[in-house]
Amino acid sequence: MSATISLLSNAKRAIQRPFTDHALQKTAMQDSSWADGLRGIASVFVVSSHLVLCFARRLVVPCCSSDERTVALFQRPILRLVAQGQAWVALFFILSGFVNALKPLKLARAGQIETALTNLSLSSFRRTFRLMLPAATATVLSWFVTQLGAYQMARQSNAYWLYTYTPLPSSSWIAALEDLVNGLRATWTIGVINTYDQPQWALIYLLQGSMMVFCALLIVVNLTPLYRTLMLGSFAMWSFDWSYKHFDRKYRSPVINYVHLPTDASPSTTTSRPLTPHRLTALVGFTVFAGILLAEFSLTTTPTLLAYYSPFLTPPLATLALVLMSFPSDAPLSAPWSTTLLTIGQRLLPPQLDFGRTYGSLGALLLVLAIIISPHARAALASPPLALLGRLSFPIYLLHGTFLRSLFAWCMFAGTGLAVVEERNADGSVTTSQRLPLPGAWRTAGSVLLSMAACGLASYAWAVRVEPWFGRFTRWAEETMMGKRGGEALPVRKE
Length: 495
Fold this sequence. Notes:
A two-stranded antiparallel sheet has the order 1-2. Strand 1 and strand 2 (about 430-435) form a beta hairpin. It contains 19 helices and two strands. It has helices at about 1-15, 20-30, 35-55, 85-110, 115-145, 150-155, 160-165, 175-185, 205-220, 225-245, 275-300, 300-305, 310-325, 335-350, 355-370, 375-380, 385-390, 395-415, 440-480, and strands at about 420-425, 430-435. It is an all-alpha fold. The longest helix is centred in the last third of the chain and has 41 residues, at about 440-480.
């Protein structure tokens, strides 16, 4: 009997020991800056997924090709997240819903409805400028580098992501200006890729998701937390259905193909479906509405109550989340674990969805939930290095494509000559072309480190020197359009 009592006493102390500093726990559970750190980590993994598509395309699929028998280390669950760009992009959408909703929900819970509505109006106005201005600047920068011919080596290389998304210089500066206008417009057109900066394909959906957040909060801000949660949950589930019914007939062919088959993938194991705008729109709605729900959940007392048990809840939740995020968009039948998830998805998930992105979104949701209930995870993600990385996340996202196609390509391929390379297509056929062959591992590693260090420094300079200009312009536009600078845009009749 005494042994049992001693065992229970030791278990109780083991649970309470990590949280002896209750002030630290309370501070961590009230701090939301962990979202910045998580966003910074997501931006790094988006960059790593593009690097994988440059020189390690076999990692895109979860197992071996027809002529291989050994699974690579980074093809295994969780470790293969270096190649799972779509899962980390889904995390951007969830954090967008979470962060944009947090302040209005706090005001609504405090009974300050009018202040919450004013905040929503200003946030929706500023969000448009804070997305469009940096994107346009990054496009102009990449366009100028293209016209100088600095991307030529990337276009000639055998690095898939580089030669696929590297544009040719325009025939003249007049034509270049027209191409620039088309590039700027493409970023904000659904189903069209900005040839000067391919990663900007996601920005139209981020803007769309932000507007969904603001409109949804406008509807539910007056409701009680219970009914607000029920409404937001119905919005999240309905988002699957509206996209299927309204967009599926219009888009029958592939429009965006974000993750591509590696050259050595076996066509017989490939079960991916065309990624069309309706599937992306469905997941945009689901992820941003779920992000609002997580913001609502974080404002309740439940995370604080669960914090005492987070050492036992967060690790398995986070592990499951990372496994779900590891689900591949291509060739899921090539590995037992992804085959099992595919079978479950076919039985439980709406059939019109892309399972790769759906599992990535579900996993990202679980990961955020696991962090919300853990003061240690919150504190770790809010640490100064990760907070700085979070501050640089958007500049890194915008600038890394330019650095990959310029400095990275120069470091990788300078001094090498063209060689005949073979590429196996999805239908099994083989095509040959003359390209700069991929170098060895040491040169590749050095090129990655040097170019990413330069990208990080440029991103820091962007955040310190360039971002304030965007803020000033946004503030000027706000004051001008809202009449805060005096004068009226149109004459008003006086009764």
